[in-house]
Design brief:
It is a single chain. The chain has helices at residues 13-34, 72-82, 85-105, 119-123, 127-137, 151-156, 158-170, 187-192, 202-206, 212-227, 240-248, 265-274, 277-287, and strands spanning 38-47, 53-64, 68-70, 112-116, 145-150, 174-180, 197-200, 231-234, 253-254. It has 288 residues and is of the alpha/beta class. The protein is built from 13 helices and nine strands. Helices cover 51% and strands 18% of the residues. Strand 8, helix 11 (240-248) and strand 9 form a beta-alpha-beta unit. Bound molecules: ligand C2E and magnesium ion (2 copies).
């Protein structure tokens, strides 16, 4: 049905193998989650103008005992289909708060941490609590947490998502729009959406230098954020040329392999520790 109606498809060994892998992975994911095989990694984000660390994005990692690393691009959709993402997502928030508390207790300030949120989580009545409960328990100042939602996820839950995000923002949580401009975007809808940050999608950053049209689109996304009084964060920055373009066009923050890949918890702690103490104190004051 996904390929369109009014057509048929012959059974093939390939389809069979694909669905077998899917069913197997879904079962393994459930087990992996309960046996703590999943890990939260952190990709640092940098203030483009000053070059200082601004925060990090929390990204899930799964190392399968026999198949090795499995990309979130493969297992997140499975977790979404099976509804497991609600529990996994709540655990990610818990984990981030626990890690943040450890970092803060060591006197370090990593800036705000972004957490990706799936559409089903926005539909879940317990979501507000699954964010605010660990924040209170680990005594985290709410602006340290930024939730990344996609326009599509919010549009799928029109009635509940806006009021949910509004009340979380009232509690001090920040909201970023992820994958902006890659799905069905509606400017009138964007106007009603409660958010603080627009993420400039990797697909636009990738095309920087690829000709006037693609440069203009990237520039326009940054300009739109500026005109709306929002912050812009570019993702997937891999080259100096991309960074220079983003800087020249007033983008605020960047993340990508040019700076750093996502780091395991201990590596990330060590990374934050290396940052200038003076800068960290100033960042902490900005958030407070
Ligand atoms: P996303 O939120 O758009 O995350 C950005 C993706 O770009 C990440 O892929 C990141 O590792 C990758 N990336 C960052 N910099 C570069 C770069 O310079 N070059 C390249 N080629 N890639 C870069 P990742 O970690 O594979 O995650 C893929 C997607 O899975 C994420 O896209 C997000 O939608 C989802 N995801 C990851 N963790 C979670 C989670 O905890 N919960 C939910 N609901 N979704 C998650
Ligand atoms: Mg994201
Ligand atoms: Mg993205």
């Amino acid at each position: 049905k996904d390929a369109g109606r009014n057509r048929f498809e012959f059974f093939s060994e390939q389809l069979n193998a694909e669905s077998r892998r899917k069913i197997g992975l879904e079962r393994d994911l459930r087990r992996a989650f309960h046996e703590r095989e999943l890990e939260v990694h952190y990709q640092p984000q940098f203030d483009i103008a000053s070059g200082e660390v601004e925060g990090a994005e929390a990204l899930l990692r799964w190392t399968h005992p026999t198949d090795g690393p499995i990309s979130p691009g493969e297992f997140i959709p499975l977790a979404e289909e099976s509804g497991l993402i609600v529990d996994i997502g709540a655990w990610v928030i818990e984990q981030v708060c626990e890690d943040l508390r450890k970092i803060l207790d060591r006197g370090m300030h990593p800036g705000s941490v972004s957490i990706n949120v799936s559409a089903c989580q926005l539909r879940d009545a317990g979501f507000h609590n699954s964010v605010m409960d660990p924040i209170r328990r680990f005594d985290i100042h709410p602006p340290y947490i930024q939730l990344e939602v996609t326009e599509t996820a919010v549009a799928q839950n029109r009635d509940t998502a806006n009021s949910l995000l509004n009340s979380l923002r009232q509690d001090g949580i920040r909201v970023a729009i992820d994958d902006f401009g890659t799905g069905y975007s509606s400017l009138s809808y964007l106007q009603q959406m409660p958010f603080d940050v627009i993420k400039v999608d990797k697909s636009f950053v990738d095309k920087i230098g690829g000709g006037a049209t693609s440069d203009n689109i990237c520039r326009t996304v940054i300009r739109m954020a500026q005109e709306m009084g929002k912050k812009s964060i570019a993702e997937g920055v891999e080259t100096r040329e991309q960074l220079e373009f983003l800087e020249a066009n007033g983008c605020d923050v960047a993340q990508g392999w040019y700076f750093s890949k996502a780091l395991g918890k201990d590596e990330f702690f060590a990374f934050v520790e290396q940052q200038d103490q003076h800068t960290q104190r100033r960042k902490a004051l900005e958030i407070l």
